[in-house]
Amino acid sequence: MRPKVSVFTRLAGALLGALLAVKLQAAARPNIVFIFSDDHAVKAVSAYDDNLVSTPNIDRLAKAGVRFNRAYVGNAICGPSRATTLTGTHSHANGFVSNEWSGEFDGSQQTFPKLLQAAGYQTAVVGKWHLYSDPTGFDHWDVIDNAFEQGTYFNPRFRSSAGEEETNGYVAELITDKAIQWLDAGRELEQPFLLMVHHKTPHRNWTPGPEELRHWDEDARLPEPPSLLRDLSHTSIPRQNARMSIGEHMGDNDVKLSMPGNLDEQQAALWQQAFGPGNMAYAAQTLSQDEQTRWKYQRYLKTYLASIRGMDRQIGRLLDHLDANGLADNTLIVYTSDQGFFLGENGWFDKRWMDEISARVPLLMQWSGTIPAGISSNDLVQNIDYAPTLLAAAGVEPATPMHGVNLLPRLSGERTAPWQRDLYYHYYENPGFHGVARHYGIRAQRYKLIHFYRDEVWELYDLQTDPEDQVNLYGKPGFEAITADLKKRLQSLRAQYQVPEQDPEAPWYHGPMIRLFEWLLNLR
Ligand code: CA
Ligand 1 center to residue 221 CA distance, Å? Predict the structure, then answer.
């Protein structure tokens, strides 16, 4: 005879079962570590290209997981890229279209950290935030605060919910210290976590840390890109009008002819020991314009790469810490940058353009047991996809739809079918630093079509034969059909994402103010 079981006992049993299921599910949910850098060009990650620099620690993620070969952002500028990362939506939808005149990021909208937090994740962000409003959806935040939230490489000020903090030290190391402190002592060990580690490096003005300054080699020479001395007078008017040339628009502080004002005595001595002799030699020579561009290029790229080497070492520290604490096994680790960067191509520095050089980013993901080790993906993916992907890893559904898609199904064993997908891009920050015209466009499998819509200029590139957007094919015979097709697909992307016809405007005084700033920055 079966024993009689009361309704109460049955209910209690069912409740216990449900609780256990929730507990098990919670145990299986991965931690997420999102490592973000600022302006890190794909060419400066050795997992992609080892001609310029070695980044052994970032490369660890490529070895243990997936390397995306065709990852892009939708608006290649710091704040907007960050807003898209958080919301999974393009700039027009999240409202943060420009660093310079969008005001503060609206932190009341849906973001993936908020959704994770509501689902029981502990959430933290340390480092560069650059959205002006205080972070929302984070149990812990500690972000760079000085220099309009750009921060300084040495002795940056931070701000957290506890207030402001002055520091002494090098930014990549300070950010890593803060990340490790939170992992060790800032969180409940039972809950899964999201940790966002946002480096300032290698953003302008790309200043190496103490270790790299100590080993500075003034005589080392890096290869020059073929287009370093390119004559842009035969390119489109928007390209001719940009103010981002290494020769003309790079300032003394960029190429370390002048020292940052906030170094302590020891830091200043190291800086002087590294750059002082080279600066004296530079002052004693008379260089032609091209020779000067070449000199500045070397200083620029060598300091840019040296700052990346320092950051890579700090990323290694963080990865070692995850390994040593048994956290690496059930943690999804992402490395990416908020956009690419011109490293002398077209004679340029900076970003903003829909060009491969600036809109394409490194994207690496490691999640042992789920993402196979050492694979690469040629899918066209975009920063709108990060939020949906990380939410899916945690088993969380967004409350309102995002623009991006979950990439994880593309990383399983059966990912052979090519992905028919076009990417939308839209740059708004004009007026703005560097005078890059507003443009939108479509990045398809082989071609890219760009519309500088306030200048009525179009550009078409065949990326299979021209991977650095050098030869504008728009209007050339033989490209009529592909152009017409791309225009149609561009319109459907704009309809799909509901891009308004009416653009947001900067205040009337912004343009003149920017020109004044640029003039002051480039003063000798
Ligand atoms: Ca950036």
Answer: 26
